[in-house]
């Protein structure tokens, strides 16, 4: 399981990136590729164990899971809206993911000291 989660995350991130980039060209299968990739990323993040019990770490973990759900929701926007509404949801998800990607390791390092 320790090797499966990082592999699932890497494959999912690559699929999400390709799906979002190719969606602009109008390729029919781009939303499918993106949504499957976002689902892989969400599964990997939800199944990642938490190393610590502080309130700050729990809050950051909830934000990370919310960001992963927003990534999957972006795929739904790709399917059901015909404009660029999905870009706003993707931006929110990316900001949450980026923030938690830096803050969670920082908080874990603070707890170890």
UniProtKB/TrEMBL annotation:
<feature type="transmembrane region" description="Helical">
    <location>
        <begin position="62"/>
        <end position="80"/>
    </location>
</feature>
<keyword id="KW-0472">Membrane</keyword>
<feature type="transmembrane region" description="Helical">
    <location>
        <begin position="86"/>
        <end position="104"/>
    </location>
</feature>
<keyword id="KW-0812">Transmembrane</keyword>
<feature type="transmembrane region" description="Helical">
    <location>
        <begin position="30"/>
        <end position="50"/>
    </location>
</feature>
<keyword id="KW-1133">Transmembrane helix</keyword>
<protein>
    <submittedName>
        <fullName>Uncharacterized protein</fullName>
    </submittedName>
</protein>
